[in-house]
Amino acid sequence: MKIREAVESDFEEIWPIFQAITAAGETYAYPTDTSKGEAQRLWMVLPRRTYVAEEGDRILGTYYIKTNYAGPGSHVCNCGYMVAPKARGRGLATAMCHHSQQMAVELGYKAMQFNLVAATNQTAVKLWTKLGFETVGRLPKAFCHQSKGYVDALVMYKWLKVQIF
Amino acid sequence: MKIREAVESDFEEIWPIFQAITAAGETYAYPTDTSKGEAQRLWMVLPRRTYVAEEGDRILGTYYIKTNYAGPGSHVCNCGYMVAPKARGRGLATAMCHHSQQMAVELGYKAMQFNLVAATNQTAVKLWTKLGFETVGRLPKAFCHQSKGYVDALVMYKWLKVQIF
Fold first, then answer.
1. Half-sphere CA count of A108, side-chain side, radius 13 A
2. Is the Cβ–Cβ distance between B99 and B3 less than 8 Å?
3. Which residues pair with B82 in a beta bridge?
4. What CA–CA distance (Å, rounded) separates A51 from B120?
5. pLDDT in the model for residue B140
6. Chain A contact for B110, CB < 8 A?
């Protein structure tokens, strides 16, 4: 499994992953009916960098890194990770999160923040916690889960300066 | 004092307020050297609505309202408020915050979130707390204050559904 920076043509393989995850409406703050063009803008154009995790010539996961807030907030980055449903449980999210922390430091960021982690997404919460992210906030009913309705969202945060992982 | 929706030509009066506040680098996550054109985009174009508080024909304050996150997060709005330095201590921020909560409900939002309140900005923290906002998170060293260096930032949140203020 190799992680490399994405190129534009990778989006053809990223799109089914993006679509499956956002259509579920359980984890990401993107509209469940986000169009392909808008998805490309959100995942490939707006972020500072986009990466893919591939096995052979198949893309199994992807993540982006971007500056979370500008100016006095610009030393904190934000990342989003997606793993193809068929490739779950194989450590791709862990590998991509490690990689993203390394990239974040190289890009000059001092901290990484996840702004809106659905509290129901226990797989993610457990994983980020294991990887050193602290739950620094809890937003009451800030995430409208497709089947569970309004659920709390967590703000998770890690200072990257001294040690990456 | 009257609060009304901003029109494009209002930006000539908004700009000195915006510039004074962002150049100080103490409260807003905008670059301290944000250009006039970029400021107009950030304050007047990107938000869903922008309002001004005026006395006679002079603009003394302004705020925006926008959707904080898309899709499953889109019932939560975000606002930013600016008061002209010469008009401080006269209740304009309070009046604008009350107004914004009313507008938020009218626009269909269920909650309001402030993403990055510098913990050193005690005037704001006290005021938002008084107006019913809860400090739901604390981001360690997430704000680089122009003179104090890295300071914590607070996430403040208010569910608007039942009662506005």
1. 5
2. yes
3. B62
4. 36
5. 98
6. yes
Q: What is the pLDDT of residues B74-125, one digit of tens each?
A: 999 999 999 999 999 999 999 999 999 999 999 999 999 999 999 999 999 9
Size of interface A-B (CB pairs under 8 A): 118
Name the residue of chain A whose CA is nearest to B72's CA.
A144
Report the distance separating Cα B15 and Cα A141, nearest Å: 36
B69 touches chain A (CB under 8 A): yes
Helix (H, G, I), strand (E, B) or coil at B15: helix
Alpha helices in B10-73 (DSSP H): 11-24, 36-40
Cα–Cα distance for residue pair B110/A14, rounded to 1 Å = 33
CB-based contact B158:B68 (threshold 8 Å): no
N residues, chain A: 165
Secondary structure of B124-156 as H, E, C letters: HHHHHHHCCCEEEEEEEEEEEECCCEEEEEEEE
**pLDDT value of position B164:** 47
Q: Residue A56 is encoded by which pair of tokens?
A: 């052979």
Flag if A140 and B144 touch (Cβ within 8 Å).
no
Q: Is the pTM of this model over 0.90?
A: yes
Enclosing H/E stretch for A101: helix A92-106
Determine the Cα–Cα distance for residues B44 and B162; give it in Å rounded to an integer. Answer: 29
Residues forming a β-bridge with A83: A61
Q: Is A74 on the interface with B (CB under 8 A)?
A: yes
The beta-strand segments (E) located in B42-103 are: 49-55, 58-67, 76-83
